[in-house]
Write a structure and sequence with these properties.
Distance between the termini: 34 Å
Largest sheet: none
Bound molecules: fe (ii) ion
Radius of gyration: 19 Å
Order of helices and strands: HHHHHHHHH
Shape: globular
Strand content: under 5%
Structural class: mainly alpha
Oligomer: single chain
């Protein structure tokens, strides 16, 4: 059988074809959103991971997956991709950031003295929240409407306005990705200390969920939506 993924397949393309691969990548700490245009072979070599083993795992997953009911975002109308990003990821992110602000602050206030890393988490999260909130507004106000207008009218001006923002958005994605990496490091991969209270648990749980959702979110934009605009 011909394997669909090989060492030269880009990590972002793997997740586009096989969304469940994001779980494998998380396990191996492989970046598929901001670093999604790197060939998997190169990344595996760099991380000194077993190429054959990881590729076999991904190819087996692909062979056994049923993708009939999944929307193919590489082909769906651009308006639908944008709606999906806003409804699934932007709405969630705005809500969870507000919720987490209270949790992260409380955990730092109550346990910060005994667990000094909570100060780093608090600071990184505060930056992350500021970055992300601004970013979501910019996309929804200054970028997505031009994409929808371009699809409806085929206006080159609308397309150019959307394209002009891509580099800035990608840079912001990278900044957000770095902050999430930092938080993962500070929390020792979200490992809770013994006898952690419920707020502590919930804070780690929600931070890690935000990381997963942000990786999926950025993947859709960096590896699917933006390249489609560049090719349009
Ligand atoms: Fe977004
Ligand atoms: Fe974005």
């Amino acid at each position: 059988m011909n394997a669909i993924f090989n060492t030269s397949t880009k990590t972002g393309d793997i997740v586009t074809k096989l969304p469940a691969a994001s779980k494998v990548f998380k396990e191996y700490k492989i970046d598929f959103c901001c670093g999604g245009d790197r060939p998997i072979g190169e990344v595996l070599q760099e991380k000194k991971l077993n190429e054959a083993e990881v590729l076999e795992k991904l190819n087996d997953m692909y062979a056994n997956s049923t993708r009939t009911d999944e929307v193919q975002w590489e082909e769906a109308p651009l308006g639908q991709v944008v709606d999906h990003i806003v409804n699934k990821y932007h709405v969630y992110t705005s809500e969870v950031l507000a919720e987490l602000q209270a949790f992260v602050t409380k955990v730092y206030r109550v346990h910060g003295q005994d667990h000094p890393h909570l100060r780093d988490v608090y600071q990184a999260f505060t930056s992350l929240k500021g970055e992300m909130e601004q970013h979501l507004i910019d996309e929804e106000r200054d970028v997505f409407p031009h994409i929808v207008a371009f699809e409806e009218t085929k206006s080159e001006t609308e397309l150019a306005k959307a394209k002009a923002e891509i580099t800035k958005l990608e840079t912001e994605h990278e900044a957000v990705g770095d902050l999430l990496k930092n938080i993962r490091e500070y929390t020792n991969d979200y490992n809770l200390p013994p006898r952690a209270c419920n707020t502590y648990r919930l804070t780690y749980l929600k931070l890690e969920e935000l990381e997963t959702m942000t990786h999926e979110h950025v993947h859709l934009e960096n590896n699917i939506l933006f390249p489609r605009l560049m090719k349009a």
